[in-house]
Amino acid sequence: MTKGLFDEVYRVETFHYMSAMAIEFTLLVLILGLTGIGKLIVEKVPNGLKSGIILGAALAAFYQIFFSDFDRYIGNAPISMISALLICTVTTFSEPFKRLAQKNKILAVIGSLGLLPGFIVAAIVGYITGEITWNIEWGLAAPAVVDVYKQTSPLSIGFPPAEMYLEVLPLVIIGYLLLFGDFITALEVIKEGQEKRPDEIIDIDINRSHNSVGIRNALGAIINPFFPTQGALWTGVHVVVVERWKQGKHAMRSLFDGIHSYYLMGIPFLFFVVPFIDIMEPLMIVALGVTLILTGLACSYIAMSLAVKNSEKAVALVTAVLIAFGGEYMWLGILTGLILSYVLVDNKKHE
Question: How many CB atoms lie within 10 A of CB 79?
Fold first, then answer.
């Protein structure tokens, strides 16, 4: 048995294992949301631990790009990837670029396009250097939804045996720790952006977030249980949208406009139009690499702003390293950070 890992050989047991994880994770998230415990957990996190969780995500992203998966992300197309990284980083984070864009309409338009300019340059550079090639066909595609449902849904292949739910419990706990990190990161990114957009107050309710994730995951667990996509946050896109939103109402009327544009406008092309799929396929690794780097940069500056005391900074660094490099034992990083937050940091408010 492959314990939920797909090794290109279809086995019913593999998807039973995946179903058990998805169903149990969904129940855990819904229970925490409906009882209000989820909000209590997230809001009571000490700053040092909160900073460490977010910094750990940054270190993990940088390590994956530049070390552990270097050949996958950069080694096969170094010029294209570096070109995309430079342009996307400048248009997303560069303060001089944003200042110039206020006076130059061309730069303003480039900045308004999010990650698209970087992908266009990567495609052109990749084609010229021979790093990227395309085999474009015409037509419309019909995703194999029915086949996927028949081979993966517990309504089709049957529900997992009872003992499997106990076996997957440690993975479900780790999954929630990752979701917890998603909530913390998303919350702090929005809080940082909210300071510059007082005209649109974002109503954040962590219990509601737990419930919405739980409902979404419940549908996924029944139709197509795939545990890796049961998180809450696409960090790279979240950061890009919030950075644009921070520029003011003239740049993005509402935060929800930016979020919807990524999903509602992209889905018809990404899933059904064959030429678009063929064009994007060689660029997907570039897109993922850019997303990870932007995630790392955003998480870094937010994490550093959260830890104010020296003791909090120490807790954050220890927690971040253990989370980023702890592998399957990353939960020890959060546990260690929690303990250190109360041992090293004076959390009492002095009058």
Answer: 16
Rounded (5°) CA angle 93-98-103 = 170
- Those residues whose C-beta lies under 8 Å from the C-beta of residue 297, and which sit 6 or more positions away, are 58, 89, 92, 93, 239
Render pLDDT for 119-175 as a digit per residue (tens, 0 to 9). Answer: 899 999 999 999 999 888 888 888 888 998 999 999 999 999 999 999 998 888 878
Coil, strand or helix: which one is 140? strand
In whole angstroms, how far apart are CA 3 and each of 9, 16, 18, 21, 271?
13, 9, 8, 10, 29
Dist. CA 150–CA 293, nearest whole Å: 37
Q: What is the mean pLDDT of the chain?
A: 87
pTM to 2 decimals?
0.79
Reply yes or no on whether the pLDDT at 329 is more than 90. no
Q: What contacts 24+ positions apart, CB below 8 Å, involve 142-149?
A: 142/272, 143/271, 143/272, 148/224, 149/223, 149/224
Helix axes 284-306, 310-325, angle to 10 degrees: 150
Distances from the Cα of 22 to the Cαs of 183, 232, 257, 289, in angstroms? 18, 14, 30, 27
Structure tokens at 60: 């993990």
- Alpha carbon of residue 154 to chain centroid: 27
Compute the CA torsion angle 144, 146, 150, 153 (nearest 10 deg): 90
Single-letter amino acid, residue 257 = D
Q: Which of 6, 18, 8 is nearest to 221 (CA)?
A: 18
